[in-house]
Amino acid sequence: MLKTALCRTWLSSKTSFNTFGRRCFGHGNVSVDLQSDTGIATVTLSEPPVNSLSGEFLTSISKTMKELSADSSVSGLLITSKFHGKVFSAGLNILEMYNKSDSYLGEFWRSVQEWYIDTYNFPKPVVAAINGHAPAGGCAFALMCDYRVLLDGKTIGLNETQLGIAAPFFFTYLMSSTIGIRQAELALANGTMFSSDQALQANLVDEVVPLDLVIPNAMNQLQKMIKIPQPAFSLSKGQFRGPNVKKLLGEREEDIATFVGLLQKPYVQKVLGKYLENLKNRKK
Amino acid sequence: MLKTALCRTWLSSKTSFNTFGRRCFGHGNVSVDLQSDTGIATVTLSEPPVNSLSGEFLTSISKTMKELSADSSVSGLLITSKFHGKVFSAGLNILEMYNKSDSYLGEFWRSVQEWYIDTYNFPKPVVAAINGHAPAGGCAFALMCDYRVLLDGKTIGLNETQLGIAAPFFFTYLMSSTIGIRQAELALANGTMFSSDQALQANLVDEVVPLDLVIPNAMNQLQKMIKIPQPAFSLSKGQFRGPNVKKLLGEREEDIATFVGLLQKPYVQKVLGKYLENLKNRKK
Amino acid sequence: MLKTALCRTWLSSKTSFNTFGRRCFGHGNVSVDLQSDTGIATVTLSEPPVNSLSGEFLTSISKTMKELSADSSVSGLLITSKFHGKVFSAGLNILEMYNKSDSYLGEFWRSVQEWYIDTYNFPKPVVAAINGHAPAGGCAFALMCDYRVLLDGKTIGLNETQLGIAAPFFFTYLMSSTIGIRQAELALANGTMFSSDQALQANLVDEVVPLDLVIPNAMNQLQKMIKIPQPAFSLSKGQFRGPNVKKLLGEREEDIATFVGLLQKPYVQKVLGKYLENLKNRKK
Predict the structure, then answer these.
(1) So what's the ipTM on this one?
(2) Which residue among the candidates C92, C204, C222, C272 is catalytic per the annotation?
(3) pLDDT band at residue B14, thresholds of 50, 70 and 90?
(4) pTM score, two decimals?
């Protein structure tokens, strides 16, 4: 416990070595704890209060992913949340989408794309320890990983339509490749949040476990995965994911324009405004 | 009961208002009962004796779909059969394919395409209350909807190969997107008719219920779906379905030529002739 | 029993008629036993000791497939192994990939492609009686068939990454079309060998049965399949498979170059060398 506590001390873009053979670093509200013996890096999402994905936070994640991808001492990633038992990630930050200029929205969306590309295309094993709720972008984040362990009793799903918006095509593919085209179509149209049991049943997650097992079981799976000859693992993973990333890279500006166009529609702004209003009232 | 009975009085292409806040209209053997409070339109297929899909009937369906799609007071559709407890739809009318000229077949096939485009691409929620058997085109009709409630004990499947023909590529995709590519391949090659239990197991339908629950359960699901912010629902649905409809629109004439070429093969005509002969004998 | 024993006498590229209305023929270590009454051909893989797929053996299989495809008296194929109860096929022969010239590897890979094209694209029903283990290429062989009966207790899977290589894209598609994209991605990245129970659960195989039922149950399914009007069966099967075969035909040389490039990487040769060394030591 002490080790972790020490290691997770926050160091924005700086690297330190502690006395336990771990390197601790990270960007912004992303902390990384790298075990020097196994090469496993634990990436902890720590944006208060619920890991809402703002442009800045997404950029911190992307920077971290790029560094970890380039670091040959890294064997695999475990992605989890600081808000253990509560929220994995609440998804894209709605404040970033409300009452903003086209260019602001465009830059925000570019950071969303970057986060997807760097995470989904990560060349080594990535396991999600989903230790809290994972709606919308939080679900997408988990789907970008190679394996998912969900905390029993928490919910997960792409529920964007409930907010009046629609998930982008690359989220859509994450879901349809995982649970099948039609089940994805239904879940996305309805904005379904899956209970942990439903998520397991639908193969949306691989394991559902109590709180004290989320991290250990995710770590256990990761330890198996890093034993696969890694160039082969990477090549095999790339065969499935490369074409989708390439597709987004090829139509990036078009995708940004689509997103901005959708967001600026009056009814969307109205729904988002109402949502934010409700959120404010709930906090009072 | 009285309300429905009154409302379903038949009005070919004319609209009437009855005293219960319902508008009743339709084309040919398609009747529509629109609840003015919810915006839910019940579309009842009423082509005697088994809702065989002739060119004329298909065109009536397409016209109805186009009108309902353009009507902003419509929130969603429930599609069902007048032949409650017997047949949802017996599929494409074989008489339209036997001993016909190329141009007749071509026009028939154009109406099949139109029906598919208008139904599959319908921008609002569509639920199928499959209150009877649904072979071949009857199954395809149900697959074009967003949700399927099947009457317990009835069968459903794309059994075209049993008649010596093959389903068109857009039927094929309906099945493979719903139950997975390989299960669809096997089912279509074998011409499998699924029992209601098998259909539920394979995710070909979403619910299997006794006769008195087919319509209520379908309606219940529809009431949930119309609560989703509709522009978002429509956008999300369109992300999945748009590309397939676009594909057909782009190769429509080629698809017609393929169908006509297949139908005019002597062995196909022979199999269809035999089938019609058996049908006639069975009726005697 | 006697019939089969007599018939399976080995005849390299020659055809003989025995006294029981069967034609026996084949190429190399592939034997064919054709029942003249049903048109069912039993294709027995008989390359000692474990049906490793060398270039020569693959070419024998392709030649046999081409002949059977052109033979209008053939109604369908049952593919099985001579090493009943032990191995269906051990997959591609590693010796063909170790310490070889680019041109040798290129020709080997061409024979792999040919085997895939001729088997996957076979226009009539093909059932795999998987009467032993089916790793890597052995699994791919089974996946190219229309239906799979697996011997209880045996394993099956695309475990190439465990050997430091990655399955080619056409193997990848065989798996993802059968068990879904994400399950395939996970299984291929991890190099998972499925137990017979897991394989059934994942829909990787259709039946798991004891040894004495593998051939009879496979034959039973084949007898059902050959009753479907065959032009329709073939057309339906081709709708699913044709595009994939066409894709490979269109990028055949590129695929060969990819394979040769991968195989000649020092780390791949090192892993294969180690594997062969272990194999040798185990035999001692």
Answers:
(1) 0.90
(2) C92
(3) very low
(4) 0.92
